[in-house]
Every structure is written in structure tokens, then in C-alpha cells.
Amino acid sequence: MYPYMFPEESLTKTSQQIERLLNLTMPVGRTVLDLACGPGRHSIALAKAGYHVTSVDKTKYLLGKAHERAKGAEADIEWVHMDMRDFARADSFDLVINMGVSFGYFNDKHDDLRVLDNILLSLKAGGVCLIDTVGREHLVKTLRPTTSQLLPDGAKLIEQHEVFDEWTQVRSKWTLIQKNRTKNFKFRRTIYSGQELKDRMRQAGFTGVKLYGNIDGDKYGPEAPRLVAVGRKDISGNTE
Question: Which pLDDT tens digits describe the chain residue by residue (240 residues)?
Fold first, then answer.
């Protein structure tokens, strides 16, 4: 699924995204944690912009791809192979980012709060966290039970989605038909409304949590293509 989830064009338009992300978050220092970094496109752009980057992902294959790209870009990054439920490094980062709808893929919803606790612990006092996902308000209007698309190489991708648990979770099945091979991929994730994600972050201890419809900082609402939540660790460093 790698070339379809991370097409090359998406990997080459990241520097402008990072510029907008930094304008939105305004970190006071230059240490960044890219949590669930995938193939590392945001990590590399941040490193090239002069930030000290630590990148965490539980998928060894994606970290390998990220390392290859970083080497080609001469970007110095610390790569960590770990589940984000387990990674925490106290008072170490000025900015933590979680990009590309990487939040909520756990069977136990309490694990999302565990991740937020880890992020808050890992931030320095006054540090900022940005989570980029898709909100329930938008999915209610756009999510269809079944979609299919013909991919550039002739493969066919069928996506099936089932919403359950009172519209708080979605169960998905992707079927890739490629020449004479068929592969299925199943996963589930919790889908948050803007208010619910804001409440979760506040519950974890973040202050000044704000919602946006994209990393440009546009207003969040039902028409917004993304749900971007930004919160800070109290300047005193108090996490209680």
C-alpha cells in the first residue's frame, strides 16, 4: 500500500506545509518530536529548516523509507522505532506534531489519552502540540459506505467503511486488486468531533486549546477538510 498511501507528489510539497505549520504553532525553541512520522516527510522538512528532530513510528518499514529519504536529503534526524503509546521523553521538545490522521487507531479509546499524556510529559514548559486529523463533522457529510478508484498503475482500490459505537468509531476495510493479486487491510479508529478532541486535550492537561480547519489557521467547522487542534503545556511546566 505504500505507493498509494504516500504518493511521490505528497512527499515533495512539504516545505510549504511546514512553513504554515510553524506560523500556526509559533514554537519558542527548535526541538521537535514528529510522532507517528511515517515516511518522514515532515521530519525531513523540519530538519532542513534547522530544527532538531526526533521521529517516532511503530512501523519499521516506514522508518526505513524515512531514513533513506533523509540520507538523500542530508537531513540529520533521530529515528525511534516505538509505539507512540510507549514513547515519552520528559521536558524535551518545544513542538510535538502528529500529522496525517495518525491519531486514534487503538481498540481502547483510553489509549488516546495515554498518548496525549505522553506528549504533554515530553513537551518543555510552554511547548506546543499540533494534531492533524479529520473531524466527525466533516465525515458525517462525506463518508460513504463503499468507494472504489482506479490507481495510476492500473490497480484498483476498494474502500469499505462501517460507522459504529454511536458514530464514535469507524471500521474500515481496504481491498487492493493488483493484477492477479488481492490483498485486504483492516483497521479501525476513533473519530472525534472538534469539541471532543478539544476536551480530550484539556483532560490531558493542555491549555489554550484551539481548533482550526487546516494548518493555514482557517476556522474549523463542518465544511473544514481537516481538524487541526493546537494546545500548549502550561508555562510553569505543571501537568496536573
Answer: 888 888 777 666 788 899 999 999 999 999 999 999 999 999 999 999 999 999 999 999 999 999 999 999 999 999 999 999 999 999 999 999 999 999 999 989 899 999 999 999 999 999 999 999 999 999 999 999 999 999 988 999 999 999 999 999 999 999 999 988 999 999 999 999 999 999 999 999 999 999 999 999 999 999 999 999 999 999 875 554
Q: Whole-structure pTM over 0.85, yes or no?
A: yes
- Look at the block and give the residue holding cell 534547522: 50
Q: Is 141 helix (H, G, I), strand (E, B) or coil?
A: helix
Helical residues (DSSP H) of 26-135, grouped into ranges: 41-48, 60-73, 110-122
Reduced 3-state DSSP string for 68-81: HHHHHHCCCEEEEE
d(CA 105, CA 169): 10
CA distance 222 to 194: 10
Element (H, E) at 197: helix 194-204
Q: Which residues contact 111 (CB under 8 A, 6 or more apart)?
A: 85
Are 27 and 94 a contacting pair, CB within 8 Å?
A: yes
